Structures are given as structure tokens and as C-alpha cells.
Amino acid sequence: MNLTHTKIQPFPHSPPLTHPTFLFSSRSLLPFPRNLKPAHVSPSFLYKKHTLLRYGCFGVSRSRTRSSISEVEAEQKQKPLLVKRAYPFDEIEPKWQRYWEQNRTFRTPNDVDTSKPKFYVLDMFPYPSGAGLHVGHPLGYTATDILARFKRMQGYNVLHPMGWDAFGLPAEQYAIETGTHPKLTTLRNINRFRSQLKSLGFSYDWEREISTIEPQYYKWTQWIFLQLLKRGLAYQAEVPVNWCPALGTVLANEEVVDGVSERGGHPVIRKPMRQWMLKITAYADRLLEDLDELDWPESIKEMQKNWIGRSEGAEVEFCVLDSDGRETDMKITIYTTRPDTIFGATYLVVAPEYTLLSSIVSTEQRESVEEYQDIASRKSDLERTELQKEKTGVFSGCCAKNPTSGEPIPVWVADYVLGSYGTGAIMAVPAHDARDHQFASRFNIPIKWVVTPNNGSCFESGKAYSGEGIIVNSSNLKVGLDINGLSSKEAAYRVIEWAEKVGKGKKKVNYKLRDWLFARQRYWGEPIPVIFLEDSGESFPVLESELPLTLPELDDFTPSGTGEPPLSKAVSWVKTIDPSSGKPATRETNTMPQWAGSCWYYLRFMDPKNSNELVDKAKEKYWSPVDVYVGGAEHAVLHLLYSRFWHKVLYDIGVVSTKEPFKCVINQGIILGEVQYTACKDTDGNYISADSADDLGEYLQENISEERVVKSGEFFVLKDSPNIRLIARAHKMSKSRGNVVNPDDVVSEYGADSLRLYEMFMGPFRDSKTWNTSGIEGVHRFLGRTWRLIVGSPLHHGAFKDGTLVTDEEPTMEQLRTLHKCIAKVTEEIEGTRFNTGISAMMEFINAAYKWDKQPKAIIEAFVLLLSPYAPHMAEEIWSRLGHPDSIAYEAFPKADPAYLKESTVVLPVQINGKTRGTIQVEKGCSEEDAFTLASQDEKLSKYLNGKPIKKRIFVPGKILNVILDRQNVKAGSIQ
Ligand code: ANZ
User: What residues does each domain of the chain span?
Assistant: First the structure.
């Protein structure tokens, strides 16, 4: 997935907060704004809100930016290495990575035994950016790796592949700047990503690696396009694009910032161009309905529903009047979801790009309308539809007749109405729609109330009432319509019925979902397999037998200046012959968008080398659907919607056997940089507590190092002045803040197992969490303790003895209980993807095991098996030291024996003369005598009991021990 081409946005000025707060823009998780049409909103609208997973960071060591090499060296000389190597991870990890590679340990053979159950666990494959891996990547990858390893050990056939979403803008932009072919840059980046991923010990089947830029792969992307074309699901249309006259090129949405080009700041306008479109709207209903059967986060389902945006309403015709107020043949058809308000429609609005506009506009108004159209063409749809923005518009000079009231109403042109939604024209009801209300108030258009709130409350003056209610002022017997007194629902139904009867309208379902613009004026993408006859311009698909249609070599990637895509420069490639007619033809020079390759890659992993079919039917049937799909929430809409669309088309043509591609989707949380603490100071340099003023902006701010901070309740305060509360903030990692953590540095300092464990231990998998270096030191120490418990302490020169310290003794009951409790917890937590609490259970086990004199082999072996999905390198090493010649990867995962899970002790309250004085821990079934002995030995209870004459003991096994003292023989006042 490519998010790298969107610029990293430094986090805007953050409000002061008193306890660590996740400061990141999560608004993209909000439902798609009402009245905003998907096709008009740049993907960057979503992305800009979610910048973390753009991974636009570079090799910044640990959490600081170092300005020069000498500075780094000077710092290193002063400071010894932060941590002492807790165990020899630097020897173990490369050793086992080599072993896995040489032994093809994680290869999923082509001919798996299909009688066994399967588990397909997939990561959203990355865009191999020049920045390399970011600590955000291994979060999801470690989780899927744990699941893959766990399921393998449970006897499943596991498919756990990795590949590259490798076409994309950054490589092309780099090519334009430097002349380096995008393929070279991309392959270099892929190599780096691959070796970084291998260094983390992920159990991918690297023999199934795929890359969207390889012709053997995109052959099938092109094949799918041809199937869409055959079924009328791919078509050509004139669609506005972002055209930058100064650069002479079409820009992607993410290359346009506030109406100007990101590069150079030149004005960008919307210009219609011939484009390929995919008819995703034909699948809108199925994409909506099938969401119900998916085990996906509700938030994603909601976002998909909003994006599809199904609404039910009506189309109604308004007759255009001539300058004398007579009806003409021209009609303006509007779309409304509130037909009940039609008597309140006091004007119409058409979008500036409304096709009939030029034929209705009056001569006097033509110039101002054209001027307005020109200004609107420079605005993004987002700007146009923003509720807060003051509404603009011009009168068209013509009127239309409200078919219900019979009154003439003016037709306005305003950009808050979009040409591509509904019919591009609306009936404006200012009393009941906020935008219409703003507009009518500004241009002095009458406001007519036609709905009264159900609860009898009055209208708020100066505001629209947009709720439903009881209809008023809505009767015209001349046209045979009276809806007064009806509820909004009934009225809407009656208006539609009436409109259908008099031939002025009909019921209509609309979708916000737009057809998918599938062409890019770019070089670095899949060529679209279509040719055009030179004489007629007629288009024909390239023959399937000619696929792949490979991308021609090019030296010059700069835009042509005419708006023609760069591929038009490959003249000998463009010129071709139509094989069926033998006539000269030219090839399509637009390429596919990056979304194309990522739409179906999960299918190719099932059968990556098949040259005859996209995927073998039997293999697809066995592996489909993906059982768990993990990735960032920023792909909640477009990627998941586009791939669901392609999947459904492939289902309809019999290529796949399931209706949906991904059974379960999980979004991993975002990793934020370390918490930064700030203290406020007045001008005299005195610290001011952060809670002492509403506006801290006027105070000076000083960064406070972690050592000087202590937590006090919910807040953070200065260690030496606890009355000074600090501001604690966690920011998104970004290069400019210098808080980016590079996984390579973590691996070399602590090892891959520590990084894996830490990323899982930071917090619940789906939550956002802050990076904390002392946290990684903590898990590293845990691994060191585990190693020393089993292998022993290092010899004086730092090396470790061969073998382990385990013994052949039979385990004790207590050891078995501790182990099985740990097995039960770790298993339950992996199954529930609560990896952090699984680690806590293992930590508890190690703490308990340190108290044992001996470490029986049977216990330790089982524990190492539990540890192996999390820390596979250490587990393999210990496993081999325990005398096993084969990898641990396919050993059976331990099963908890319920016999050992029952609690063996109970806490027994002890009363003295009816008053509870303490508790004792006793074995279940312990006798009265034993309970009394324990109570007498208890530090707290003994002072009540020792040496006192006892009258009676009341003992309810497992419930209570009550000791009644003989008062007559006790000195007054000695107890009670
Ligand atoms: C009259 C009306 C009265 C409306 C009222 C709303 C409230 P959804 O639910 O998003 O589909 N509309 C229709 N086409 C539009 C366009 N191209 N650009 C901008 N707005 C458009 O919204 C449908 C409502 O949005 C329609 O119902 C229309 O305004 C407006 F009290 O019609 B309504």
C-alpha cells in the first residue's frame, strides 16, 4: 500500500494537555461527511489525516535527530552503550535466519495436504518507499507472524506471504528529478525492505514473493481489466482532472495543495479529459449488503456504508419559464431526499458545471455566470461543500415553476451543489436545509416553513429546522395535492405518488459512490491494454494472448507539456497494428492507478507462478478467503472497497469461489513518538503548574527530561516540585520532530526478538500507543532472564556454555500448575489477538520459575514452545540446545490440561470472637486443625490467639474459621 507519496504533515500546534495524550489526526476514521461526494474527494483527504503510516522517515537513530556524523561520534564516545547485551541475540538471530532460509522452513508447498485445515494470514503489502521500514510496519507484521506460527504449531496449513505494491508516484517523481529509471529505484527499495523484514525473523514464505511491477504479475491485472471491459464495467468518459498549465501536466489529488501544485505552487484548474472509468456503482448494493456477514471492525463497515452512501428520495421535474413567465419545453430535474418539503422550495440551484446551464442562462446574466463557473473550476469539492464557508452564487436570469405550489421560483447557480451527484440540480428549501438557509439569507430569497417539529417546539429564528415533523403550508387543490397534517414520511410518499401520477417525477435511489476513475497520466503504472484505430478512433481490447502488454523503456519521464501522458513519448510502442483489421492503430497511453495491483494480490499468493491462469481453481477454493487481514485503518475505505468490487466481479465470472475476499480485517493501532514533557515558566524563570492558567500560551515552555518527571495520580509532575504539573504529549513520529525510531537501530541494539516482543507488549494491538525506550529495555531484560534461567549465566569472557541447565526430574504439582496456567493464558490471548497480555503471562511464569531449585525439562520445553511465536530466534536456539535436531516451527503447540487449572488453595477469613481479624491461605479441603495452626502462625492473627484460652472453634471448610476465646480467662481489655 502506498501512502508515502503524500507529504508528511507536521502535527499542528497541539493544545496543552495534562496527561499523555495521543495526538494524531484520526478524523479519517469519522464517517464520510454528508453531502461530500466520494469521487470528488481526493484520497489525500483521507490520507492527510493519517500520516503515520506514510513511513516517510529516514534513518534517524533512536529518538533523536543527529545533525552530523561528528556529533554522533562525540556523543558515542561520551556515553557507553545504553544496555548490556542481556543474551547473545546478535549471534543467535542471524544463525536461525540462515537456517530457516537454507531449510525453506516456512515454504508452503504447492501440493499441501488439503485434508488439513488452512489458515491464510495476510499483511497489507507495503509500498517499498525509499525510507525503508518504519517501526509502524513491524507492529502488524509481528502480530500476523505470531498468528502464522501459532497456527502452524496447531497443525494448520498456513499461507503467510509477502510482496510489494511497487508502482507509485514517488519513484516516478524521483525519476523526473534524477533521470533514474523508476524500476531501479523500486528494486533497490524492495531489496532493502526484504532484508529488513528478514532481519526481524518473520516466517513469510519468500518463495511466493510477488511484486505488482513484474510483467508476469501485471499480465493478470491487465487480464482483469479486459474482463471488466467485456462486461461493460470499464468505459471511457470525459472527467475533470487536476490540470496545471504551468507544469503542463495532470496532477494527482495528493500533488495539489490548496488549489496550487505542491511542486512550484502553480495554479491548478479542473479540466475535463478522456478517462477510463470502472463501474463500481453497478455493485453498490452488493457491496453494501455483504458487509453484514463480515467479521470486520464496525467502524470500517460504517465508513464503507457512508462511502457508498445509499439514499432514497425522488427526482422531480421543474419546468423552466421564459422571460414572460410562460412554460417552456425545458425541464430541470432535481434530486431530493425530502420530497415532503417541496412546497417550501423557494428557488432552484444548479451546479456551475450543470450541462443545461448554458441553454437556460439569460443574456444579461451570461457573463457573470461564466465568470462564476471559472472561479468554481479552481475549487476542490471539499472547499465547495464545507458547511462553514460562506455560500456564493449567481442568478441564472431564469425562473422555473414549482410543480406543487405553481409559483415561479428563481434558478440560481451555486457551487455548493455538485455536478456529479444526483442530477446536479436541487430544489432549495431554506426553511429546512442549513446550506439553503445560509444561501437564502445572504441573497434575500424567501424562506417558507412547511414542517413543524413533532414535539411542538418553535422554530429557532435564523436557523433551518432540518428534522422531520408535521407538514404545514402544503396544499394546492389546483394540482390535486394536499399534504398538510401528514407526517414527513407519509407526505414524502404522497408527493412521490402524485409526481408519478402526473408524470413529473419518480422515486429514486442514489449513491454517493461514484464510478472509479481508472486512468492516470503517469509512466510508472500498468499499461491499459486497449488500442485505438487511427482512422475512426474506435477502441479495441488487446488480445488476451498478447498479454502482458509490457511497459516500454523510457529515458525521459518528464510530462509532455500538452497533457499527454509520458507514455506518448514511446512512439514506436504507441504505434501498432490492429490484428483483426490490419489497420494502423495507437495504444492507450494512460496507465492504471496504483490501486489496481493491490486489488487482487491476495489471490496471486495462492498460486504465484501460474502462467496459464490468474489462480488455479482448486488452490483458490482451498485457500479462500483470507482468514485474517491486518493493516492500517487508512485503507478502510478505498482499498478494501475496490478489492471487494473486483472480487465480486471475479466471483461472477467464476474465477473465485467466495463472495468476499477478507473474512476478518484488523487495524493495528498507530505508534506515536515518545511522550515529551514540557514545563511552563514565567518571565522570571519560575515554574508555573500547567493547571494554573487556562491559556498557557503566554508562558515560556521548557522541555523536561524523563528522569525529572514523576507520575502523580493521573498527571505528571516535577520530581523535585510535585506541585508543578507538566504538559505531556505524544506526537506522531515524523522526521521534522526528530522522534522517528528506526527498527534497524533497535534490532542492532536489542535484537529482533526484543523488538517483536516490545511492539506486542506496548499495549492492546488495535490501540494507538506511544513508543518508550525504557519499555524495550524491559522486554529485553525479560528475554535475558529467560535465557539465563534456561542456559545459565555467561562465563567470565561473556560467552555461554553449550546446552542448558534443565534437569530430567519429574515436575512438581506446583510447576505443572504454573505451566498450565501460562499455556491456557497464552493460547487464549493469541486467539483473541491480545498479544500484550499473553506476554505478561509468560513474564509471570519466568518470575515463578526463578523461585524453583530445578528447571525440569518437561516444563521448560513447553514454555519454550509458548514463547516461540513471539521470540522465534531465542526459542529455536533453546530448542536445539534442549537436544531437538529439527526446527521448533512445526512442533505441536502445548495444550492446557484442565486438571492443573483448578485453583488448589482458598483464602479463608479468620474471625476472633465473631470479628474478622485477617485471612489465611489454605489448601482446598484443609482440616480445622491445619487451618487453626496456620492462623496461629500468621503474624497478624497470632497476637490475638497465642497464649489465649479458647472456648470454641467454628470451622466451615473453605469458608471461615471463627475462634471464640474464653473471656473469663482473658484479662479485661486485652483484645477487642
Ligand atoms: C431538498 C431538501 C430539503 C433537501 C431539505 C434536504 C433537506 P443525501 O442524503 O446526501 O443524498 N442535494 C441533492 N443533490 C445535490 C448535489 N448535487 N449537490 C449538493 N447537494 C445536493 O442528500 C440529498 C440532499 O442533498 C437532497 O435533498 C438535496 O437537498 C441535496 F429540508 O432536497 B435536498
Answer: 100-214+595-667, 223-284+516-593, 310-511, 673-733, 772-882, 905-965
